Amino acid sequence: MQKKSLKRMTLILYNSYDKNRWHEAHKRAIARAAPICYAFDCNLAIMEFPCKKEDILSIETTIGNSGEYLHKLIEKNRFLIIDKYLPQLGIPIVATSKPDKKKAITPMDVVNLLTKKPCGILVGLGRHGLPKDIVKMGEYHLDITGKGVSLETCTAIATIPAVISTYINAKFGYQQQ
User: Fold this and answer.
1) Among the residues of the chain, which ranges form H helices?
2) Percent of all residues in the chain with a pLDDT value above 70, rounded to a whole number
3) What is the layout of strands, in order, in the sheet containing 43-47?
4) pLDDT (tens digit, 9 = 90+) per residue, 83-126?
5) The pLDDT of residue 16
6) What is the DSSP code (8-state) at residue 144?
7) Residues 22-48, mean pLDDT to the nearest whole number
8) In angstroms, rounded to a whole number, what is the distance separating the alpha carbons of residues 172 and 156?
9) Quick check: 72 pLDDT over 70?
């Protein structure tokens, strides 16, 4: 199987902050995630964010080459604003440092899943992480460190696509696009 035949991975930022007010923290998380998703060939989705597409388009930032990568994701229809997990995102995977042993998977397991179906990896914003109902919804749980190390949100946003991409490149061979 070639790398190009893999299904799409979507990094989903789940809003654990204020559900009613559009905060600077929301904008910063999106601005930081966009270049990562672009660099590692990932879709980006935001879930339960208090914003509209116009709010996203008006984000002003110095991050990600002044928002260039966010705009590229939007142009390629690889950025989504969602209120709930959508079936087209594929297999729901929860990013957590405390995976349920029955649902725990490794980055290589994610790569193997991507050979069959798309995968949506949920990351909670803020210190509260993902709520229990979202954690339960996850078909699988991914501890990207493999050691139970809790990562700061932006570190997790960068690490998850980078590590999975490294495993993809190891399995299928590095291909510069």
Assistant:
1) 24-39, 53-57, 64-75, 107-114, 132-137, 153-172
2) 88
3) 79-82, 43-47, 9-14, 119-124, 91-95, 140-142, 104-105
4) 999 999 999 999 999 999 999 999 999 999 999 999 999 999 87
5) 84
6) T
7) 90
8) 24
9) yes
Supply 71's token pair.
């705009």
Rounded CA-CA distance 59/71 in Å is 10
Joined together, the tokens standing for residue 54 give: 């116009």
- CA gap 165, 91 in Å, rounded: 17
**Angle formed by the axes of helices 153-172 and 24-39, to 10°?**
10
3-state DSSP of 69-113: HHHHHHHCCCEEEECCCCHHHCEEEEECCCCCCCCEECHHHHHHH
